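Re: that chain you flagged

S.,

Sorry for the slow reply, it's been a week of failed gels. I finally had a moment to sit down with the sequence you sent. For the record, here it is as I used it:
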Amino acid sequence: MIKTLLFGVSLTLTATAAQAQTAPSINMSDMPAVGDSLRLSQAAVVLPASAPALTLNGANKTWNYAGLVATSQRVERYATVASSATGAQLFTFGLPFGANRANLAAPRDLGVAGGVLPVSDPHEFFLSSSADFRSVGFGVTFGGIALPITYLSQARQDVIYHLPQAYGTAADASDSYFEIAVPGTGALSRRRKRSNLRDAWGTLTTPFGTFQTLRVITTIIDRDSVVFGTTAIPATTLPTQREYKWLAKGVHVPILTITTTEIAGVQQITGVEYRDIYRRFVPLAGRDAATQAALSAFPNPSAAGEAVRLTVPAGSGPLTVAATDLLGRQVFSRSFGAGGTLTLEAAAFGNFRGVLLLTVTTAQGTATRRVVRE
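Prediction finished late last night. Pasting the structure tokens below so you have them in one place:
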């Protein structure tokens, strides 16, 4: 009897230990590092029918996303601060001490180069430590001068991950704020509330391979203010975004990220990206000149709660309309079978106020119109 009891206890302890080893704990060594050049593929936002539900969570789960098909790729690169910053940027981010100390940097498309501010060469600077992985600021070039952009304070920096990230621990959060302004030209400010919930672990399969992963749900709520010259657009809270991210040991970027945007209270998938190998794509035409010439949106400006009608040449064939803000974040994406007068319902815009770029993608290329929501 005693032997049987001890044997049962031994099996229970062994199983518990095996589970603890299987659930990965993500730490500093699993974050981006200097020298990383990591290829990421984007897939269609309509998931394969075989894909599991995003609500699948808990311990020792299996997610099979092998049916994803890459449609485009990008490369995430990280370098030293010294090789990425010059002038005041190097003084701000390159010192071995101080609130804005960074130890790696990455090029970033801030979405402002052709929008509010005439800046170029944007970079984001990070500090990776055993305590967390955080954004400490940005660098841009304006009028040939390298400018640093820092957060309001060290306490208001964007903490992307508190470390370690482990299954079953309480959710964590950060509240960040930064502002970039060029006198007489314009300004942008962003307050971001970010929270991370580690809700699952298990085996994930994508076209890149099979991995033991920790699933983290990141919720992002942004409130932006924009100034054109001396004209200020009221601050607006963007639709809530959630990033479902599967993290693995030693990979440095999520194996898979599925992004959703909350529209009219419903989460809609607006982005799918996964770690991948190099894949060759047949390039599409760049600019659709015919659509660009005829594309119009009305009313423009439009009021929150009002639909926008978009006129696209009737012979355009199947097309996609995507709306992004001036920081390059997608607000929504819609597919249509043909051109003509298309209606973008008010619910798609949510409570957004400010400037949006509507990009129409056809087989011939892309065309863009700027619209304002008041």
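What I noticed first: The chain has two domains: 28-275, 289-373.

Talk soon,
D.
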